[in-house]
Structures are given as C-alpha cells and as structure tokens.
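To illustrate the input format used throughout this study, we show a single complete record. The first block contains the structure-token representation of the backbone; no residue identities are included at this stage. The design step must infer an amino acid for every position from geometry alone.
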C-alpha cells in the first residue's frame, strides 16, 4: 500500500494508480510477482528479489489471515536493496579503511601486498615495503591532547599522499604506524623515497595552535631479496624499522643482523631481567692455556641462558639486549659473583685457576663498578690477582678518558686487565699502553684465517711482537686446529684458547680438565 511517491516508485507504480485495484490486476504483466502472491495466498511466507525498472528490491510476502486463520489476503513489503548495498559498502569501508585518515587499514594493505608480491613474482619485477613510525607521537598526545594527536596523524597521512605517487598504496596500521607499498621499487629506490619522506616530515606541523616537530623511523624490505612472501616482508620491514629507531638513523633497509630488534626479541627483556634476578643463568668456562707450561692462565666465564622454551640461548643474542635495556649492571654482577664463587670452590678442591670475566662499556662507565668488584672479591674470599677482566678494544676506544679511570681503579685492586678482540678496533697497541693492561687477546678472525691468509698472519705476527715490546702477554683466541697452535707457538705467542684445546663447558667438566693438567 500507500506512502509517498518514493515508495510507489519502488513498486513500479505512479501516484493514484493503485487506488481501488487489486494486486492481481496491477501486476498482470509481472508473472514473478503473481507467482509469489499465489504462494502467499496458499499460506506460505515468501521472500524474493525483484527487478522493477532499474530498481532492485527484496520483497517479503506474508499471508493475511482472519481471526479463524483463513487466508484472506497477502501483505508484501519491498525494501530497496540499493540502500542495503550502500550500507554493505559502508561497512566494508569501515572494515578496510582507517576512519581517522581515510587511508586503507592493515587488512586492505595486506591484500594489496599479497597481490603485489604475486604480480612481482610473475613479472620478475621488484616491489618494496616501507613501514613508518613516528618518533615522538606519544609526547604530542600527552602534551597537546588526543585531538591534537588525531589531527597530527591526519596531517601526516596527507603529507605522505603528497610525496608519493598515485600508484603507491599508503595505509595506517593503527597508532602512529604507517605502511607504504611501492610497486616496481627495489630497496635502493625505496631508500631514496624514505629520505624524501623524512624531509617532508621534518618541517613543523601546525596542529591546532601549536607548531609540532616530529620525526619518523622507517624500515624497508624489498621483494625478493628480503622475503618471498608478504608475511616475511612485513616482519622484516618491522625489524628494520626498530633497528632504525634504535640507531636514530631515520631509516634502515632490512639486514639479518637486525633480527635482535624484532619485537619477539624485545619480549625477552622482562624474562631476562627475571632470569638474572632468580639465578636462572649459567656459566660455561673455557680455558686459556699458557703454551710454555701447558697450564691454565685463566678459565674464561661465558654466560648462557637456559630458556624454558628456546633452549640454551647464546650471549650474542641477549648481551646486546641487556646493553640497551639497563640490564648490563645486574648481569655483570651476577656473572662476577657466580664466577668468583666457582673460583673459590676450585681453589678449595686443590686447583687454583684464575677466572676471566667479560665486562662491557656500561660497567666501565659506572663509577661504582670498581668498588663493587672489590666487594664481591671480599665476599667470596678470592685474591684480586685471581680475577681477570676482559674488555673489548672498541669499548675502551669509545670513551678512553672515562674508561681509564675505572680501569686504573680495578688494576690498583690487583685485578688483571685483558684487551679482548684485539685488532678489530681503531687503536694502536702503543696507545693502549697508556692504559693499565696486562694482556691482549688477538681477535678470532685473524687467528682462524692466519693459515690461509697472509694478511692475517702478518697481523698476528706484529701483534705478538709489539705486545712483547710493551711488556704485555699475548693470547690467541679461536685456535681450532693443531697447525694454527703450532704456528702461534713458533711466533712466540704466550697463551692459546679455542676449540682445539677445549670448547666452553660447564664447571663440572672443567674440573675433569683441570685434573688432566694439574
Ligand atoms: P668473546 O669474549 O670473544 O668469547 C669467545 C667466544 O668465542 C665464545 O662464544 C666462545 O664460545 C667462542 N669460541 C671459543 N673458542 C672458539 C673457537 O675455537 N672457534 C670459534 N669459532 N669460536 C670459539 P660465546 O660464549 O658465544 O660468547 C660470545 C661473546 O659473548 C663473547 O665473546 C663475549 O663478548 C660475550 N659474552 C659472553 N659471556 C659474557 C658475559 O658474561 N659478560 C659479557 N659482558 N659478555 C659476555
Ligand atoms: Ca672474552
Ligand atoms: Ca674475544
């Protein structure tokens, strides 16, 4: 029935046309409607879709009954489907676009990225992915409020659109993270674009009445060199982005060495803190053997983390995390205490090896470090001369003036100081002689290649010569075979360490080894 012209239009009628006429008559030329009506009059509920002119509608017919249940007519309700299609489109839009910036969201972006990768694979062309995260967004939000924050995000979205080509896809992943898909671009051109984006974002943004300075960190991953599917590309771009953020580099292209920056690694941090606090780490020891008498110069303590799910985690994976998250001090304190306790136990068992402990930059810059070393020595009743501290050359060179203060104090206590990984830094031995140093350890990379590489052999020979001229002991690390051991002995090297002699092992195994060299 009735209603305005709009609704009659849906039914394909003109105003007044229906008055006083039956449906059967009105829809004489619509067999579909007539058939639906017959079924309804026979007592059925009917749903159908209809095309009337250029309108699409969905119709529901219900039998109309009297008080005895007899069917006396049919009621049809037609709904404009175009309306619903619009709603569906709106819903789809909501599901695939970010309402704040109007940019595609993560879902839609994933879709486009999947397609781009497929296309690139077929056409053997590259494509690149760039993830962008604002550096000081939280500050803006906290200082100027959420409205200003939202406004800033919109402006950033606009800026990205201005810099990029129409064919590039820009998405907001939520928070202050944006993603950009560059068809046909390789890592080099994505990097050039990253530079341009940084420039564009550098100028202050006028947000409400404030001029807001922001910066962004960007990570680039390109198909196919950094990943063969969209999942891996996204993960690698994210890792590169964290690496860029951590290095304050603005942008970075993915490299496998950045994997320590991945968010699942970051979640290791609280677990590491807990492991340090609850004695959940352990030490392996590897002997450094004096060539002349075949006895240990020291046993080097090398930390391991037995992780409940991931097994024994190597220090290369968690030392860098500890360095960046303020855990280096508690970690070194734990290693020192555990190593000195073990040292005392060996002494009580009749052996008297010194122990070496690796220390980091953070420890050297800590004005209380020397004092706390003295404290642990005292607690475990170990002579300072039984403790050697290994510091890598590059760490000393990073801030020589401050390093020298702590080193001098440690040396005064009676602890020995060894320069680790020697030859990889930028210093000269003569310069290092200003520091209170007892021994240098020639870096593994020279030792392991000295048989095959003349350059390495020359470096090894000159470190040994110069070291001796300066009154230092010289240790070679990473000795993996007999040939190398013999050559080092011929060159006058004082002590060796490496798999050829013994791999790092738990204290119990070292006790057996100590027995053999007694
Ligand atoms: P590093 O001080 O240079 O320690 C020597 C590393 O070389 C050890 O790896 C050892 O297992 C390995 N190695 C020993 N002999 C050989 C050999 O013949 N061939 C080869 N290819 N490798 C050999 P690890 O235990 O994984 O330690 C790696 C690095 O982690 C150490 O390098 C050190 O810089 C750091 N680290 C280990 N424990 C501690 C710690 O308690 N504190 C600090 N600050 N750093 C530590
Ligand atoms: Ca070492
Ligand atoms: Ca080393």
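Output of the design step:
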């Amino acid at each position: 029935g009735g209603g305005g012209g709009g609704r009659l239009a849906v039914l394909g009628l003109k105003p007044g046309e229906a008055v006083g006429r039956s449906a059967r008559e009105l829809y004489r030329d619509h067999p579909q409607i007539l058939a639906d009506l017959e079924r309804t009059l026979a007592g059925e509920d009917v749903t159908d879709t209809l095309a009337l002119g250029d309108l699409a509608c969905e119709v529901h017919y219900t039998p109309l009954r009297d008080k005895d249940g007899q069917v006396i007519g049919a009621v049809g309700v037609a709904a404009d489907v175009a309306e619903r299609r619009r709603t569906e489109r709106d819903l789809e839009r909501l599901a695939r676009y970010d309402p704040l910036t109007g940019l595609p969201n993560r879902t839609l972006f994933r879709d486009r990225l999947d397609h781009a990768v497929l296309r690139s694979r077929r056409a053997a062309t590259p494509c690149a992915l760039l993830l962008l995260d604002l550096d000081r967004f939280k500050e803006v939000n906290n200082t100027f409020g959420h409205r200003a924050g939202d406004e800033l995000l919109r402006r950033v979205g606009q800026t990205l659109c201005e810099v990029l080509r129409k064919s590039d896809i820009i998405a907001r992943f939520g928070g202050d993270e944006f993603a950009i898909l560059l068809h046909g671009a390789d890592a080099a051109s994505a990097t050039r674009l990253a530079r341009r984006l940084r420039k564009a974002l550098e100028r202050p943004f006028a947000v409400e009445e404030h001029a807001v300075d922001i910066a962004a960190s960007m990570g680039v991953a390109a198909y196919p060199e950094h990943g063969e599917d969209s999942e891996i590309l996204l993960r690698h771009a994210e890792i590169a982005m964290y690496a860029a953020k951590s290095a304050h580099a603005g942008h970075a292209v993915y490299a496998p060495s950045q994997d320590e920056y991945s968010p699942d690694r970051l979640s290791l941090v609280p677990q590491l803190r807990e492991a340090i606090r609850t004695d959940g780490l352990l030490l392996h020891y590897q002997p450094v053997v004096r060539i002349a008498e075949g006895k240990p110069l020291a046993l080097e303590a090398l930390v391991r983390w037995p992780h409940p799910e991931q097994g024994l985690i190597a220090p290369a994976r968690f030392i860098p995390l500890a360095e960046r998250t303020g855990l280096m001090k508690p970690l070194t304190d734990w290693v020192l205490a555990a190593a000195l306790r073990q040292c005392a136990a060996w002494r009580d068992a009749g052996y008297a090896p010194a122990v070496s402990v690796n220390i980091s930059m953070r420890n050297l810059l800590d004005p209380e470090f020397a004092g706390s070393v003295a404290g642990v020595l005292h607690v475990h009743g170990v002579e300072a001369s039984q403790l050697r501290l290994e510091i890598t050359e590059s760490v000393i060179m990073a801030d020589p003036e401050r390093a020298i203060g702590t080193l001098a104090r440690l040396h005064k206590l009676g602890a020995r100081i060894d320069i680790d990984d020697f030859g990889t830094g930028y210093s000269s031995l003569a310069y290092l002689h200003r520091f209170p140093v007892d021994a240098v350890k020639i870096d593994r990379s020279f030792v392991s290649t000295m048989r095959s590489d003349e350059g390495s052999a020359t470096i090894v020979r000159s470190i040994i010569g110069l070291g001796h001229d300066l009154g230092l002991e010289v240790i070679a690390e990473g000795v993996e075979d007999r040939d190398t051991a013999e050559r080092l002995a011929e060159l006058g090297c004082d002590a060796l360490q490496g798999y050829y002699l013994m791999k790092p092992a738990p204290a119990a195994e070292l006790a057996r080894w100590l027995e053999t060299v007694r």
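Structural context for interpreting the output: The longest strand covers residues 296-307. The CA atoms of residues 290 and 495 lie 4 Å apart.
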